[in-house]
Specification:
AOC barrel-like; about 160 residues; globular; eight-stranded antiparallel beta barrel; 8 strands; mainly beta; single chain
Length: about 160
């Protein structure tokens, strides 16, 4: 009888402990602003710096993975972005999908602007096991001559 009680207690405790680990995940807002305006090493398309709310400053790289025709004469694109925290080197990997369109302004100059979605696909350090998703907006051609942009990301981040 005593063995049965101990076995039952272990099963119940194990179930509670497993549930506690699963429910310990924390979901929070994800807000990042960045400027891609740095010179990149070979193999990377965009490099820059930014700030991730609640985590501090980061460096970032982006590699385009696909281009194609989009709606209304825009360009559809996909890309992979990596954010690396300056504080401890933790990284977040994001998969991006969106469109980039030429929009005119009062000076007659077309400015590429874009929007899309991002999915957090993983991370290292304090972001190990991270996941999440959200929306992004971008204005290309800002800052230095060459391929540059300013981007804003807003969504959710879940940490285990």
């Amino acid at each position: 009888m005593m063995r049965m009680t101990i076995a039952t207690a272990l099963v119940v405790f194990g179930s509670v402990a497993t549930t506690a680990r699963v429910s310990a995940a924390s979901t929070q807002g994800f807000r990042a602003a960045l400027h891609d305006n740095l010179v990149c090493p070979a193999g990377l398309d965009l490099c820059g710096k930014g700030e991730l709310q609640g985590f501090g400053t980061f460096t970032t790289t982006l590699t385009f993975t696909g281009f194609g025709p989009g709606p209304e004469g825009c360009t559809a694109l996909t890309a992979e972005r990596v954010l690396t925290l300056d504080s401890d080197g933790s990284t977040l990997q994001l998969s991006l999908e969106g469109v980039l369109c030429q929009k005119g302004n009062s000076g007659g100059r077309a400015t590429p602007v874009g929007s899309g979605t991002f999915t957090i696909t993983g991370g290292t350090g304090q972001f190990t096991g991270a996941f999440g998703a959200g929306q992004l907006t971008v204005e290309a051609g800002t800052g230095k001559p060459g391929l540059t942009d300013t981007a804003h990301y807003e969504g959710t981040l879940t940490l285990p």
